[in-house]
Amino acid sequence: MHRRSALAVFLVALITPRIALAAKDKASTSAGHAEQTLAVGTVALRTSELAKEMAKDDWVKRFANYEVAEQTTIAEVLKSMGFSPEKSEQATEMVDKLKKSSNFDADYIAAQLEGHQKLLKIQDDYIGSGSARTGAGLDVARLARTQINEHINLLQTIQKTLKG
After folding, report:
1. Distance, CA of 106 to CA of 104 (rounded, Å)
2. Is residue 127 part of a domain?
3. The CA-based dihedral angle spanning residues 97, 100, 102, 105, taken in that order and rounded to the nearest 10 degrees
4. Is there a contact between 162 and 108 (Cβ–Cβ < 8 Å)?
5. Residue 129 covered by a domain
6. Which of helix, strand or coil describes residue 88?
7. For residues 67 and 57, what is the distance between their CA atoms, to the nearest angstrom?
8. What is the pLDDT of residues 28-37, one digit of tens each?
9. What is the CATH number of the domain that holds 106?
10. Tens of pLDDT, residues 45-93
């Protein structure tokens, strides 16, 4: 009887650190995903708030409104999961750059397209990671990916109309 108890204690002692390590890896993967999403999303949000004021093209203004709503929602969801955006120097730099642009609408759309491609890669990488098989983070990534793909298509269409 003592052998079984000893074996059970040994197995628990052997497995517990591995379970804890797996949980830590999953948590750090989720945290990394949330931080990356918030960092790139903050740039999209701040530049879109600017575009609501500065854009001349109606579709560019419309897109800016969509983007502000989307990024605000994503940030709220991630905040409810315990993640918070940090102050973004990258967002400040991009806003300053766009304020000086001689072709604001085209430069804003190009920046949004680049940012959305980064956001899509972040979601795809997270979804494809072995540790992101279940949970709220995976659900957020799946929903975000769908919206990001739609926005990329819309941005490409707007970009063509601005050039044409």
Report:
1. 6
2. yes
3. 50
4. no
5. yes
6. coil
7. 15
8. 557 888 899 9
9. 1.20.1260.10
10. 999 999 999 999 999 999 999 999 999 998 998 888 888 877 889 999 9
